[in-house]
Design brief:
Jelly Rolls; four-stranded antiparallel beta sheet
Length: 216
């Protein structure tokens, strides 16, 4: 489903029947500036400084990641805590815990994220941790401007039958990182972030992304 946020009714939407939700103009210009200001004052970690992640996502440039401060994290969750999310998360049996994991991301020219389905969390296992199960993936965008030539699209795939019983991936959705938009989709679902083009210059693709998860 794709809708303008002002026309969206969370209590009438279900991820069980539609695995993708795109809301345009979810964030106002003032809200986006608040988060951009927070990003400007945070400490970033580059992909090269995260060896396990870099090994899982080879040749993906050197994008940046940062944790959210508690105030911005609270502000974020107050806005994205939609009733349709809670309904879907509570639909899974034998839940022992609910978890979230959201971070700031900055993609510049040459940065991308290769195809994955959010179930292979090898870099977390490499740290000796057993991760909770990811149920909903979220990405939302805070840059002030983004042109079509700048790349950085979120591509979602669907599985189709290939030759001799094999399966292959076909593009199901190509989602532009429009300023203020919000994208949520069910896990697992193969997806990638297209490489940011050199035409973007010094412009950064600024986002908050992560997951709603359950423990069992």
């Amino acid at each position: 489903m794709k809708a303008h946020y002002s026309d969206f009714h969370a209590d009438q939407f279900s991820f069980a029947s539609d695995p993708l939700l795109i809301l345009e103009n979810f964030w106002s210009a003032e809200e986006r500036k608040i988060f951009r200001d927070a990003m400007n004052s945070t400490t970033w970690t580059s992909l090269a400084e995260m060896p396990a992640v870099a090994n899982a996502f080879k040749n993906c440039g050197n994008w940046l990641k940062s944790e959210m401060a508690s105030l911005e994290g609270q502000r974020f969750m107050e806005r994205v805590g939609l009733s349709c999310i809670a309904e879907y998360m509570e639909s899974f049996p034998n839940i022992t815990g609910r978890h979230i994991n959201f971070n700031y991301y900055s993609y510049g020219s040459g940065d991308c994220l290769s195809t994955h389905d959010d179930t292979d969390d090898a870099y977390t296992y490499a740290q000796g941790k057993i991760p909770p199960t990811r149920r909903l993936a979220l990405a939302t965008y805070f840059h002030d401007e983004w042109q079509p030539d700048w790349g950085g699209e979120l591509i979602l795939y669907k599985k189709t039958a290939g030759v001799q019983g094999t399966t292959q991936l076909e593009v199901a959705q190509c989602i532009s990182p429009s300023p203020g938009s919000l994208v949520i989709f069910t896990v697992p679902q193969f997806h990638r972030v297209c490489r940011v083009d050199a035409l973007a210059g010094d412009h950064k693709r600024l986002s908050i992304a992560g997951w709603f998860m359950t423990g069992h």
